[in-house]
Every structure is written in structure tokens, then in C-alpha cells.
Design goal:
Helix content: 55-70%
Oligomer: single chain
Distance between the termini: 40 Å
Number of strands: 0
Structural class: mainly alpha
Largest sheet: none
Shape: elongated
Order of helices and strands: HHH
Number of helices: 3
Strand content: under 5%
Length: about 70
């Protein structure tokens, strides 16, 4: 499912940027601002991401073998 969504995004991104460039009469300003806005949205989503897990080692001690 993740791979399908990535493939769809890879197909839609050039089309969307092309439509934005056409709507701005051949100027790349709209496409640049579109990419900047997507970057800002991704940055805000990353900054607000919280993890309720305190420490992976204390919750799953059996998955990480001790180093001797």
C-alpha cells in the first residue's frame, strides 16, 4: 500500500507541476511556491510529531542483545 501511494505521487507530481506552470503562463514561480508550501506542511507535520514511547530499550529488551 505504501509503495502504491508513492508510485501515484510520482505520477501525479510532474503533472501537477506542469499544470501549475501552464496556469502561470509558463512561469515557474507558481511551481516553486507549490513545492515550498508542501515543504512547510511536511516540516510542521514533522515538528508536531510526538512519540508516547519513552525508550525502545526498556520496552523491548529482548530485541536488542546486550553487548559484551
Amino acid at each position: 500500500m505504501v509503495n502504491l501511494k508513492m508510485q501515484l505521487a510520482g505520477f501525479n507530481a510532474p503533472l501537477t507541476i506542469g499544470f501549475v506552470i501552464d496556469s502561470f503562463d509558463g512561469s515557474f514561480n507558481g511551481a516553486v511556491w507549490l513545492l515550498v508550501s508542501f515543504g512547510v506542511v511536511c516540516f510542521i507535520a514533522f515538528v508536531t510529531l510526538k512519540s508516547d514511547k519513552e525508550n525502545f530499550m526498556t520496552e523491548h529488551p529482548q530485541t536488542i542483545p546486550p553487548v559484551k
